[in-house]
Fold this sequence. Notes:
The chain is built from 16 helices and 17 strands. It is an alpha/beta fold.
Amino acid sequence: xxxxxxxxxxYPVAKVGGLGDVVGALPKYQNKAGLQAAVVLPFYNRKFVxxxxxxxxxxxSNLFAGERMDFEIWKEKTDKLGFELYLIHIPGLLDxxxxxSYPDESEQFIAYQLAFLxxxxxxxxxxDIIHCHDHHSxxxxxxxxxxxxxxxxxxxxxxxxxxxxxxxxxxxxxxFKYLPEVDMTYAGLLDWKGGINPLASAVRCASAYTxxxxxxxxxxxxxxxxxxxxxxxxxxxxxxIVNGIDSQVWDPAADVMIAANYTVKTSKxxxxxxxxxxxxxxxxxxxxxxxxxxxxxxDDKGADLLAEAVNRSINAHPDGVNFLMLGTGNPEIExxxxxxxxxxxxxxxxxxxxxxxxxxxxxAGSDFLLMPSRVEPCGLNQLYALRYGTIPMVHRTxxxxxxxxxxxxxGGYGICxxxxxVDDICYSVNRAISLYNDKGHMxxxxxxxxxxxxxxxxxxxxxxxxxxxxxxxx
Length: 474
Ligand code: ADP
């Protein structure tokens, strides 16, 4: 079975968040299971591209708003990521360093999708599945079915996975000119409230759509940035599949980015060594419980509440707890975290920026990982924390609800709370401190967490089952 994954991100080529991790791992595990999965990304002028060798395997031109657009398909020579990696290079449009936030982002992603379809079509390929991830490739299912250019491929099975339903990639009809000729009878399938909405279009047109956890599938019906009625109407066609983790990249026994490797058996001493290294780096007292946060500093992650919650918790427990924050994002939130530093000079540190290596050391060296997210489609941080024996402290929402059981419940191992609020965060900090002082209980929970299986093997199989079901029924 031949699958093309279309995505804006893929670790280690280009990653901003969980989308990159998933697309960097899922195809590898699908190939392990005997499929032929490949990834097609926009071209990024980034380190991975400079440091690896590529062949230009296809060159062509198509029409983009009536103008000639040249494009090339680059293929990484050695398949070193465990799958074939293709980049779509378009001079002046897809040749830049950043993944998002250019003013002509809509044009970039439309051009990416058209070049992909033209390449597959003109090179006479017939993939079994085209798997689109998030709105950046959301127009593909519609175009395959309703543009005369791709009639040969019109029956290709498409799967659309929503990693974040808050972002739709919507744009106005003045950009309709960038699309190829389509059958206007069906143009309504592109529309949402008077604009073109790639996420809505993909939900309607893909053979099936998925979310990255079952609870998030339910949540979209009442929280999807305006698309709630659509998700309620299309609910029956949706499937929730929890993400896995790449257990080769995220393995405390082999991770080269941490201070000391450890297994379940050696986790007590192993974590302590990492905590020492982490605390030494940030000049924190290693004896205190260490609660960390890693993530995009946006309201969806509850990051706007961190400064106040940390401040209040430290005031309530002077000398009783340490906090470490790693993140980047909304400048106001960054400022709130930086502004707290002089007020809490002893028990609080923050690192504003993106730092993959430091994130690994934080997972390994912290006692607790705080995730007060308002919205969390799946969440990978809590899965990494579990694998590294770090107790997740999570708001019961989306994938966090599906993957973390409170330690007060049967078989539980995490700390769960019901609201993204400063009060709930502070209350869970109190629980974390009490737990930390009960060493025997901490040891037991660590063993329980580290023995859980959130590897991709299991989730990859669920996608394969879905593909097979779609191929036989469509
Ligand atoms: P999202 O995709 O919404 O950002 P996920 O929990 O699915 O959230 O994935 C977040 C991923 O990004 C994790 O691998 C996490 O470690 C990583 N990450 C987020 N922010 C940073 C940062 N500032 N530095 C390093 N890694 C980060």
